[in-house]
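Dear support,

We are seeing what looks like truncated structure output for some complexes. This example has two components. We would appreciate it if you could run it in full and send us the complete token output so we can diff it against ours.
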Amino acid sequence: MQNINLQTKKRIYKFFYGTNGTDALFSKLVIYLLLISIGFLYLYPMLYMLSNSLKSQSDIINPMVNWVPTAFYLGNYERSLVVLKYFPTLFRSLYITVLPAFIQTLITSFIGYGFAKFNFKFKKVWLVLVLMTFVIPAQVYMIPRFVMFFEFDLLYKPMAIILPAIFGQGVNSAIFVLIFYQFFRMIPQSINEAAEIDGANPYYIFFKIAVPLAVPAFITSFLFGMVWYWNETYITSLFLGSAYPNLQLRLANFVSEYQQIYASEQLMRLNEGVRLAATLLIILPMLIIYFIIQRWFVEGVEKTGVTGE
Amino acid sequence: MKTFKLSRVMRENLIGYSFIGVWIIGFIIFMAYPFIQSLIFSLSDVRILGSGIEVNFHGMTNFRRIFEIEEGFIFIEALNAFLREIVFQVPIIIVFSVLIAVLLNQNIKGRGFFRSIFFLPVIISSGPVINELITQGAGGANIFESYGFISIIENTLSPRLSDPIINIFSQIIIIFWFSGVQILIFLAGLQKVDRQIYEAARVDGAGPWESFWKITLPSLSSLVFVNVIYTVVLLSTFSENQVIIEIQRNMLRPNTGYGVASAMAWIYFIVVMGMLGLLTLLFIPKKQKEGGR
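Here is the complete output from our reference environment:
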């Protein structure tokens, strides 16, 4: 009798605290519960968006309809596609996303390599300045930049976005310089020395040895560059404005544009369904990319040493 | 021999600068020059004319005007609200991302799945998207309202304290959404901690609670600093930030223009840099003490 008692006690103890080596079932349960409920909180806006964007006007008003609409209604998407001028604008958005991200990746890898491999005067000073360009709020230099672009007739043209990227001053360029700096520092110096003895010049070494070794860093940088350029609205709204609107700007002006197009039609009232459908359409391209290659995003942060040591 | 060595140093300098030269040129054109220009603008009367821009130096007038005109009052109010929010939001984001990182670092199934959920917001959160989600009630407001949570806070606390708290709860999901990168940074830090340290602690009789405070947290201390800075920068450059919107609006207002807008930008710059400086002072001495031990 006592023996059994002891055994159940042990089992209860193990349930709550675990034994050496194995984890307690209780704490495991708590962890899963926490992760699932916080995960749900995270996905809540997405689910809310999806559910409401598929509701018709009557479903939105109907308090009985909660998550699942009575019928899948695609009218919201149809109207959003029209108001956002989706496909022409998508093409334009991709142009000012993919191109600067690509250029920025190449240029910052070059700069990062310079910082990682060579000892030159004032290197520390320049590195601190690289960090500063990340920390300083953009507002402080944006107005003169705006005036400068105005004077050189670059305003409201894609070049206003691309030009800074060419000089390593694009969106979050400093982070990419630091990523490549960290990455190239991990490559042993002896490889460089061996190649140099064989008569290779530094640029040849960079393109033929360093770049192939850094493919993961290139992919991660390009993807993050793309995401950040896609989601960037401060610079695009300032430098491109309504003359060259991308999808994000169209979303920001969605309400007024909608009312212009559907002003006369009482049945086509603007409701949350339409607005959420439009929002979902804006994030869709990045969402698709993320689901296909999310490994590169998540592991990239860990592997490329953004962690800053 | 000596001349050879000297030329080698020279050579390395030249090669190094040939690599980073493009950055230096860009820095001068797109950062340093606009930065100084903006200081001049903030101290001048700036007018855009058909022939170009006219800049007339007039001292601190723009800064004084911010405290006199209505646009300036709105700006100061926005700055004030921003500061009050950031004081609440940064600790929430940091504590939350430590918590998630610790949970993800446990030996569990589906870790990759959860990790990609927590990182998802980084991919999709842009200013207009978040703005749209908050106005359409997907920011978490209705979850907390339906449990009467918000009315409890409203009734028990003074409005000065309860307003920012209610504001935070109505946007709690969005605040969580800002912690994607921080979670991964903490997680990477945790994975570098040697598992044997935990085992040794367990043998010595430390429970999970003690090992969290004595092993896990100290190993993250330098990353806390990195993440605090990152979070402050992230929040202060977020394009739906009211302060930023006000600066941009005032650029084109006839009553204010580039001059006053530049002065506002400088005030904002000084406030943000002051905040970052303060945080650095707060974190650096701690690090040195640990190093000395």
